[in-house]
Amino acid sequence: MAHTTELDDSTLARLPIGQWTDAAHTEVIAFIRRSLAARGLTQPQYWIIRNLHPEDLATAEEAESGLTVAELSERMSSYLLPQDEPEPDAADLVARGLLTRDAAGRLRLAEPGRLAHAQVKEQLPGLRGEIHAGIDDADYVTTVKVLRRMILNVGGAEALARYPV
Question: Which InterPro entries match (predicted)?
Fold first, then answer.
């Protein structure tokens, strides 16, 4: 099939949305995962780090007390892919010294994990820029609004609730 820039609007209007949302999801996730892999992390490993960082997704209390893999898996359940396995990813982070694990299985960030978090956070605007290249904010906002409306149209209010902003 031709690129979307080679199709007229009437043709684009007839194309199935599922095809395009699936393609966008697959390609964007693959791009993000390649980018993280170049930094020595899987995407689930980065999510684990984020969920343990007190200046990101963890509260100060959670960062101090730590979280188990089961707790992390529950927190990440809306965005883990079927092939993602948090336990081996967490074990690898512990083995590499980015996390510590206590006798109760609670994971906490070690200093190298904080450094990895900072390095990735510093690179995120560039990655977002690559993904959004050639797309102005107004078009992006319209796209998100259209997708949210489609989700609601098919009874997906509960699905939207899984993706809080």
Answer: WH-like_DNA-bd_sf (IPR036388), WH_DNA-bd_sf (IPR036390)
